[in-house]
Amino acid sequence: MSVSRGGFSSRIGFIMAAAGSAVGLGNIWGFPTQTAGNGGAAFVLVYLVLAFCLAYPAFMAELLIGRYGQANAVTSLQKMSKRPWQKHFAFVVGFGGIICASLILSFYGIIAGWMMSYAVEPVFTVVGLTSIAEWVISQDLVRNLLFTVLFMFMTVYIIRRGVEQGIEKWSKRLMPMMLGLLVLLIIYVVNQEGASEGLQAYLNPDISRVLEPDLLVSALGQAFFSLSLGTSVMVIYGSYISKKENLVTLGAQVTLIDVSIAFLAGLLIIPAMYVAQAQGVAIFAEDGSLISGSSLVFTVLPTLFDSMGSMGLFIGFAFFVLMSIAALTSSISMLEGPVSYAVERHNIAREKATTLIGVLILLISIVIVFNISFMLDMVAMIATQYGQPIIAMLCCVFVGWIWQRNELLNEIKLGNETVENGLFWKVWPWYTKFVCPIAIAMVFIHSL
Ligand code: PHE
């Protein structure tokens, strides 16, 4: 272990960074739209259960792998491996996660770019540059390229500065801002006409749907995406935590923050849809389901903001700034996976490695932008529906079956003297060995 690899300087630094990774477009866009499309609170209930019973244990597996290994995902997994085949297997799992993170970043950066473009639109409108304002929210190719490049530039800028001066410092600045904006927006929206109907749609469960297999699959996918699992991200963030910290509690706190912010985002988006309806905007698709996905964020909400006059300009600005910030604290974590690998395994200087990998991923984004109609969904599907569950499952297999049991228990005990009296100690090791891999595999197979 090299002393110069850096790490989080404080507990709060880790919490902000890991929560920053977890909280992203998945929470503020994905979760509310999935909830709207899947029977409201029924989806929320299933999501909560799966997030704590499956995603949290898998999340802990990744954090522990990293903290034990004190290195990038491949090296950390290889440190747990004793036999040659295990080392090869470790490479496949670790590198697979890194590829997965890179692929996610390649499409995430495009969508984040759209968020940024919608954030600057009201600014151009206010200063009277209406034709530019129209252009930045058009489907224009150059506009897509420009904002993707801008967003990637910001991501690279932060990661070049390293863990403490980059990831930690910016997460500590951006996360409170994001939360503040979210709360302000909720207060504003729930006081508008029509919002109470939205709250009802959100919080009234249609219990009959709770056991629908498709709902389970969507909720689990959402939970895994949200906790950034199967992408090497939590392994590398785990590796930057001090051995003195109580990982079990930290992991639980991050999960709680992630789930709570998704819930709060629901309190914003779903009432906002019904406020839009009260203003005459259509919020139901032809088949009677609520409009979701990109048309919700880029059509329904902007129409709503437009209808609010000058206040709407401000609200729209705040909303898309919120989205952009949430996306940025996630995208930096995606880039850190491959960068830490290049730095530690190939001895490339961090700044150089960051720029190189950033450009490489940007090239993939550009290819996607040129073929946006089919490639965006395709890459997203490969990375999130196949890559993430498979790699996350293999991480559980690694922890349960390959890691020496005494080493594992020892790692759990670090920074946590009373852990042996608690539930985690008794349940988690066998749970991760048997229940997690099987449950993830079952849901994954169903999703095929
Ligand atoms: N968790 C992030 C979100 O919800 C996305 C993400 C996925 C971040 C994978 C890192 C790795 O938007």
From TrEMBL:
<feature type="transmembrane region" description="Helical">
    <location>
        <begin position="355"/>
        <end position="374"/>
    </location>
</feature>
<keyword id="KW-0472">Membrane</keyword>
<dbReference type="Pfam" id="PF00209">
    <property type="entry name" value="SNF"/>
</dbReference>
<keyword id="KW-1133">Transmembrane helix</keyword>
<feature type="transmembrane region" description="Helical">
    <location>
        <begin position="89"/>
        <end position="116"/>
    </location>
</feature>
<feature type="transmembrane region" description="Helical">
    <location>
        <begin position="312"/>
        <end position="335"/>
    </location>
</feature>
<feature type="transmembrane region" description="Helical">
    <location>
        <begin position="386"/>
        <end position="403"/>
    </location>
</feature>
<feature type="transmembrane region" description="Helical">
    <location>
        <begin position="141"/>
        <end position="159"/>
    </location>
</feature>
<feature type="transmembrane region" description="Helical">
    <location>
        <begin position="171"/>
        <end position="190"/>
    </location>
</feature>
<dbReference type="InterPro" id="IPR047218">
    <property type="entry name" value="YocR/YhdH-like"/>
</dbReference>
<feature type="transmembrane region" description="Helical">
    <location>
        <begin position="12"/>
        <end position="32"/>
    </location>
</feature>
<dbReference type="InterPro" id="IPR000175">
    <property type="entry name" value="Na/ntran_symport"/>
</dbReference>
<keyword id="KW-0813">Transport</keyword>
<feature type="transmembrane region" description="Helical">
    <location>
        <begin position="423"/>
        <end position="445"/>
    </location>
</feature>
<dbReference type="InterPro" id="IPR037272">
    <property type="entry name" value="SNS_sf"/>
</dbReference>
<protein>
    <submittedName>
        <fullName>Sodium-dependent transporter</fullName>
    </submittedName>
</protein>
<feature type="transmembrane region" description="Helical">
    <location>
        <begin position="215"/>
        <end position="238"/>
    </location>
</feature>
<feature type="transmembrane region" description="Helical">
    <location>
        <begin position="250"/>
        <end position="276"/>
    </location>
</feature>
<keyword id="KW-0812">Transmembrane</keyword>
<feature type="transmembrane region" description="Helical">
    <location>
        <begin position="44"/>
        <end position="68"/>
    </location>
</feature>
